[in-house]
Amino acid sequence: MESRASHREVSVAVFFVHGGGDLLLYDVVIIGAGVVGCGAAYALSRYNLKVALVEEGAEVALGASGANSGIVHAGYDPLPGTLAAELNVRGNSLYPQLCRELDVPFCPTGSLVVAGEGEESALDILLARGRANGVADLALLGRDELLNREPNLSPDAAAALYAPSAAIVSPWELVLALAETAAVNGTDFYFNAEVTGIRVGEETLRGVDTSRGPLLAPIVLNAGGIKADLLAALAGAERYDILPRKGEYLLLDKDISGFVRQVVFPLPNPVSKGILVLPTVEGNVLVGPTAQPVWDREDRSTTGEGLAEIQRGARKLFPDLPLRRVIASFAGLRAVCDSGDFVLRSSARVKGWIDAGGIQSPGLSAAPAIWERLVQLVGGLRELEPRERIKRPPLLRLRDLPLAEREERIRENPLYGRIICRCEGVSEGEIVDALHRPLPAVTLDGLKRRTRVGGGRCQGGFCLPRLLAIMSRELGISPLAVTKSGPGSEVLAGLLAKGEER
Amino acid sequence: MKAELVVIGGGPAGMGAALEAKRLGLEDVLIIEREQFPGGILQQCIHSGFGLHLFGEELTGVEYAQRFIDQLGPAGVRLLTDTMVMEVAPGLVRALSPAGLIEIQAGAIILAMGCRERTRGALNIPGTRPAGIYTAGTAQRLINVEGYLPGRRAVILGSGDIGLIMARRLTLEGADVLAVAELMPWSGGLARNIAQCLEDFAIPLYLSHTLVEIHGKKRLRGVTLAQVDEEFQPRPGSQRYFPCDTLLLSVGLVPENELSRQLGIELDPVSGGPRVDQTLSTSVPGVFACGNVVHVHDLADNVTLESRRAAAGAVAWLARPVRGRELAVGPGENVSYVVPQRLSLPVSGTVSFLFRVRKPRQEAVIEVVSGGRVIWRKRRRGALPAEMVEIKVPTADIPAADSLTIHCRGEK
Amino acid sequence: MMKKTMTCIICPLGCRIEVEGERAQGYSCPRGRDWARQEAAAPMRILTTTVPLRGGEIVLLPVRTRGPVPKDRLWECLARANSLLVEAPVRVGQVVCPDLAGTGVDLIATRTVAEIGKD
Ligand SMILES: Cc1cc2nc3c(=O)[nH]c(=O)nc-3n(C[C@H](O)[C@H](O)[C@H](O)COP(=O)(O)OP(=O)(O)OC[C@H]3O[C@@H](n4cnc5c(N)ncnc54)[C@H](O)[C@@H]3O)c2cc1C
Ligand SMILES: Cc1cc2nc3c(=O)[nH]c(=O)nc-3n(C[C@H](O)[C@H](O)[C@H](O)COP(=O)(O)OP(=O)(O)OC[C@H]3O[C@@H](n4cnc5c(N)ncnc54)[C@H](O)[C@@H]3O)c2cc1C
Ligand code: SF4
Question: I need a labelling partner for B56 at 20 to 30 A (CA). Which of A16, A229, A334, B393 fits?
Answer without folding.
Answer: B393
